[in-house]
Specification:
It is found in: Cell inner membrane. One of its GO terms (molecular function) is ATP hydrolysis activity. It is a peripheral membrane protein. Belongs to the ABC transporter superfamily. With about 240 residues, this protein is α/β, with parallel strands linked by helices. Helix content is about 35%, strand content about 25%. The protein is built from 9 helices and 10 strands. It has helices at about 40-50, 75-80, 95-105, 110-125, 140-155, 170-185, 200-205, 220-225, 230-240; strands at about 1-15, 15-25, 30-35, 55-60, 65, 80-85, 160-165, 190-195, 205-210, 215-220. The strands form 2 sheets. It has a 6-stranded mixed sheet, with helices on both faces. α4 crosses α5. It is globular. The two termini are about 35 Å apart. The structure holds adenosine-5'-diphosphate and magnesium ion. Adenosine-5'-diphosphate binds near residues 18 and 38.
């Protein structure tokens, strides 16, 4: 079953086309990594799928709910996806647990007791239960990003979107975040991930998408695409990130 379907999705900022005719389908349980040069539209595509940006053209459907269709609000679609950003965006004055409790309280309408149980279950899942009472500033970058993953999971999304989740981290802190993501993938979560971590892509992704200048240029299996790059442009790109 398709969880994400984009058809001829396009996005302009003023006169500048940023996404052009994106056709993309993601099936339940798939782990899809998106790569491409800076400015190719990767973040904008995730933001459109998370309904943070209105589309200029085409259609977007998440779990059978079509954006813009009568009776389907942007909010209803947004709550099907959880997003993790490069900058963790945790509330600095709230503890790790309180950060994770916000979504269940506000979006899912859970009581404090329920939300607390949800938060503790998810903090345990990312290995951080013992840090639940710490403020973000007392945690390492890798721990903060794992709290951000728990927070995104807390509204029980069908799809998780990651935009360069390890790019702001020191190299020695990246592994723990990638491991948390790999665990999620192994549990069957549907994931769409923008990252330059090619080893992660090779180990965890079913599909690799190469974007360039607002278009999907390649969409295939990571192993074969790395072993035998389907274009000179992609080969050149790999040479820069590997
Ligand atoms: P990537 O994530 O692949 O680096 P982005 O999606 O961030 O690319 O950006 C794609 C293009 O869209 C870039 O040229 C960028 O300058 C432009 N862009 C992104 N957001 C905006 C915005 N809010 N207003 C105008 N241009 C934007
Ligand atoms: Mg980006």
């Amino acid at each position: 079953m398709s969880l994400i379907t984009c058809q001829k999705l396009s996005k302009h900022f003023g006169d500048t086309p940023v996404l052009q005719d994106i056709d993309l389908t993601v099936e339940a349980g798939e782990v899809v990594v998106i790569v491409g040069p800076s400015g190719s539209g990767k973040s904008t595509l995730l933001r459109c799928i998370n309904v943070l940006e209105p589309l200029t053209g085409g259609t977007l459907e998440i779990d059978g709910k079509r954006l813009g269709e009568r009776g389907t609000s942007a909010r209803a679609i947004r709550r099907e996806t959880g997003m993790v950003f490069q900058q963790f965006n945790l509330f600095p004055h709230m503890t790790a647990r309180e950060n994770v409790m916000l979504g269940p309280r506000k979006v899912r309408g859970q009581s404090r007791t329920e939300a607390r149980a949800t938060a503790d279950r998810l903090l345990e899942r990312v290995g951080l239960l013992q840090w639940a009472d710490q403020l973000p500033g007392q945690l390492s970058g890798g721990q903060q990003q794992r709290v951000a993953i728990a927070r995104a999971l807390a509204v029980n999304p069908k799809v998780m979107l990651f935009d360069e989740p390890t790019s702001a981290l020191d190299p020695e802190l990246r592994g723990e975040v990638l491991q948390a993501m790999q665990d999620l993938a192994a549990e069957g979560m549907t994931m769409l991930i923008v990252t330059h971590e090619m080893r992660f892509a090779e180990a965890a992704a079913n599909r690799l998408i190469f974007m360039d200048q607002g278009r999907v240029v390649h969409d295939g299996r990571p192993g074969p695409m790395f072993a035998d790059p389907p274009s000179e442009r992609f080969r050149e790109f790999l040479g820069h990130v590997k």
